[in-house]
């Protein structure tokens, strides 16, 4: 049995790097107790960090980590096996390529980078060096997503013809690099990358068309939200929305099939199960017209219990520790990586097509 403990260096020691640190050191990314015992249960030990901000280096020093004076110094450390890149998005490309070329494996935060040309250079570097390059698409382990994916695969809604996936906030873009174009800011790259990746993990079909509009409610430089319609060759259509100026949010998921519908209100389920309503009898007409002062409708009358059943589906969480278990297994040649470079490239190309659609105001045929 191989009990090697892999040594990791982290580049960019901000918010997300600390999330990785807690997960790697304690097995629980929500572990906020600074005195929590470091047991490195994932088989990885964080050796040191590099950050351009002196305060981050001092913090790492105080924590007993190595604070490298330069990225070159980290690259030159023979003990480092894996480099985690958790910098702003525009920096990912160079960090990853230089890490791979220095003989390290690279784990890169999402969005992998800011263009498909840059991503291709990263994939080429991984192929050239034979070193592993994995992107942290962690929202593949989210409970709301996995619940929708299971419902889709099990066919409990019949033929699904529409998937709506939204993530709404009301705080605008954080006032940091996320608001700047040169750093790869904007909500398409920040959140779009997650919800597009999730959608493509659910729908196993070729994309037909993409239409998108970008929002600029609080930020002119980068999109602070977007709305996008994707159609697939099998006829399914998807509405994807990210917004940061919505004081009332719409459901996280709304999925429509020929036999029923599913709704999940909050990210992660928000402590609630998924709501599902399914048809039980297509032969009976249970419509009691809705009569208002101004009119009457039978078409839009809600169904009763006579022909439908309403149920809940428990939210099924994934185990995010699988991400790093898979990174190690990939390095050791025992598994193929869960987040594959071609999947990441497809998502990047979808985002680029969405930007182009928004710029031209046109529906664009997607080339698979
Ligand atoms: P942050 O601003 O909190 O931290 C970034 C750090 O990188 C800062 O400490 C900054 O000083 C440092 N830095 C900047 N340029 C650098 C350089 N050239 N070399 C070394 N260090 C540099 O940002 P964050 O929220 O931690 O985001 C970092 C990355 O993580 C982004 O790519 C972001 O999209 C991603 N992220 C992912 C998730 C997720 O759920 N997967 C969540 C949040 C952020």
Break the fold down into its secondary structure elements and pairings.
Elements: E1 6-11, H1 15-26, E2 44-50, H2 54-62, E3 66-67, H3 71-75, E4 82-85, H4 92-101, E5 105-109, H5 116-129, E6 133-136, H6 143-154, E7 160-168, H7 187-202, E8 207-215, E9 225-232, E10 237-243, E11 253-257, E12 260-264, E13 274-279, E14 290-292, E15 295-297, E16 308-313, H8 321-331, H9 341-360, E17 364-365
Parallel strand pairs: 1-2, 1-4, 2-3, 4-5, 5-6, 7-10
Antiparallel strand pairs: 7-11, 8-9, 8-17, 9-10, 11-12, 12-13, 13-16, 14-15
The chain binds nicotinamide-adenine-dinucleotide.
Features:
single chain, 368 residues, alpha/beta, Rossmann fold, Dihydrodipicolinate Reductase, domain 2, 2 domains, nine-stranded mixed beta sheet, six-stranded parallel beta sheet, 30% helix, 25% strand, binds nicotinamide-adenine-dinucleotide
Describe this structure in words.
This protein is of the alpha/beta class and 368 residues long. It folds into two domains: 6-136, NAD(P)-binding Rossmann-like Domain (Rossmann fold), CATH 3.40.50.720; 140-319 and 349-365, Dihydrodipicolinate Reductase, domain 2 (2-Layer Sandwich), CATH 3.30.360. It contains nine helices and 17 strands. It has helices at residues 15-26, 54-62, 71-75, 92-101, 116-129, 143-154, 187-202, 321-331, 341-360; strands spanning 6-11, 44-50, 66-67, 82-85, 105-109, 133-136, 160-168, 207-215, 225-232, 237-243, 253-257, 260-264, 274-279, 290-292, 295-297, 308-313, 364-365. The strands form three sheets. Strands 16-13-12-11-7-10-9-8-17 form a nine-stranded mixed beta sheet. Strands 3-2-1-4-5-6 form a six-stranded parallel beta sheet, sandwiched between helices. Helix 2 links the parallel strand 2 and strand 3. Helix 4 runs parallel beside helix 5, helix 5 packs antiparallel against helix 9 and helix 7 crosses helix 9. The chain is elongated and about 75 Å long. The protein starts with 5 loop residues before the first strand and ends with a strand. The mean pLDDT is 96. Bound molecules: nicotinamide-adenine-dinucleotide (NAD). The site of nicotinamide-adenine-dinucleotide has 23 residues, from helix 1.
């Amino acid at each position: 049995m191989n009990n090697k403990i892999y040594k990791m260096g982290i580049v960019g020691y901000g918010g997300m790097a600390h999330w990785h640190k807690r997960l790697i050191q304690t097995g629980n990314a929500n572990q906020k107790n600074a005195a929590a015992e470091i047991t490195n249960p994932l088989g990885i030990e964080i050796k040191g960090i590099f950050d351009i901000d002196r305060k981050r280096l001092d913090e790492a020093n105080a924590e007993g980590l190595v604070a490298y004076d330069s990225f070159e110094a980290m690259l030159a450390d023979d003990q480092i096996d894996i480099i985690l890149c958790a910098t702003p998005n525009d920096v990912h490309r160079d960090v990853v390529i230089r890490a791979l070329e220095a003989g390290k494996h690279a784990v890169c935060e999402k969005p992998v980078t800011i263009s498909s040309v840059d991503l291709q250079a990263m994939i080429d570097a991984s192929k050239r060096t034979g070193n592993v390059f994995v992107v942290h698409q962690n929202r593949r382990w989210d409970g709301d997503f996995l619940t929708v994916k299971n419902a889709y695969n099990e066919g409990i809604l019949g033929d699904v013809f529409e998937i709506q996936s939204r993530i709404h906030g009301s705080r605008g873009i954080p006032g940091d690099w996320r608001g700047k174009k040169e750093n790869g800011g904007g909500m398409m790259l920040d959140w779009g990358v997650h919800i597009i990746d999730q959608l493509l993990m659910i729908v196993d079909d070729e994309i037909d068309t993409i239409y998108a509009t970008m929002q600029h409610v609080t930020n002119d430089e980068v999109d602070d939200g977007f709305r996008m319609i994707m159609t697939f060759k099998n006829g399914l259509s998807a509405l994807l929305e990210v917004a940061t100026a919505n004081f009332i949010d719409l459901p996280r998921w709304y999925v429509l099939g020929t036999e029923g519908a599913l709704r999940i209100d909050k990210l992660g389920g928000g402590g609630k199960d998924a709501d599902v309503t399914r048809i039980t009898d297509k032969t009976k007409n249970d419509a009691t017209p809705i009569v208002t002062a101004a009119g009457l409708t039978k078409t839009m009358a809600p169904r009763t219990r006579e022909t439908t059943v309403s149920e809940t589906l428990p939210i099924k969480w994934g185990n995010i520790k699988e991400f790093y278990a898979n990174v190690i297994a990939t390095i050791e040649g025992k598994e193929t990586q869960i987040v594959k470079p071609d999947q990441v490239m497809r998502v990047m190309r979808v985002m680029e097509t969405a930007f182009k659609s928004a710029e031209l105001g046109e529906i664009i045929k997607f080339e698979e």
